[in-house]
Design brief:
This protein folds into two domains: 1-34; 46-143, Immunoglobulin-like, CATH 2.60.40.420. A hairpin with a 7-residue loop joins strand 8 (124-129) and strand 9 (137-143). 25% of the residues lie in helices and 30% in strands. The protein is built from two helices and nine strands, in the order H-H-E-E-E-E-E-E-E-E-E. The chain is α/β, with parallel strands linked by helices. The chain has helices at 3-34, 40-43, and strands at residues 59-60, 63-67, 70-72, 75-79, 82-88, 97-98, 115-120, 124-129, 137-143.
């Protein structure tokens, strides 16, 4: 193999190695984004709730995922003063809108990837729905 061919092979190997390093760095950055302090799940030091359609058992959590045209969990129980955060992981926009004319959440349209938070300062049971998809229902029970 001639000197020019060896130089060409070395250049190709350097370019390939650099591209691989770039991809590895990008992949690592994407993983880091999932663990930022902007992620409400990390701020609350909680695991993501599992999605169960039609789950009516109250859960001790302060985070609700919007996915597959459902709130998950559909019913949660929190203490007075808790801030509940809804995270839209669905392919469509949704709302978090109080249902029974009480002081409750009113998110407006939440695009995919957006979140909305509301602090419950009064004990009671608060129903909410998606005003775009009225079959999507949820309840927050607030205890002392």
């Amino acid at each position: 193999m001639g000197k020019k061919a060896i130089i060409l092979v070395v250049i190709i190997l350097v370019v390939l190695a650099g591209g691989g390093a770039l991809l590895a760095a990008r992949n690592n950055t994407d993983k880091t984004k999932d663990n930022t302090t902007n992620n409400p799940m990390n701020q609350m030091n909680m695991k993501s709730p599992s999605h169960t359609s039609g789950d009516t058992t109250p859960q001790a959590t302060s985070s609700v995922t919007i996915e597959d045209f459902a709130f998950s969990p559909a019913n949660i129980t929190v203490k007075k003063g808790t801030t509940v955060t809804w995270i839209n992981k669905d392919s469509a926009a949704h709302t978090v809108t109080e249902t029974d004319s009480q002081t409750g959440p009113d998110s407006g349209d939440l695009a995919t990837g957006k979140s909305y938070s509301f602090t419950y300062d009064t004990a009671g049971t608060f129903k909410y729905h998606c005003s775009i998809h009225p079959s999507m229902l949820g309840t927050v029970t607030v205890t002392e």
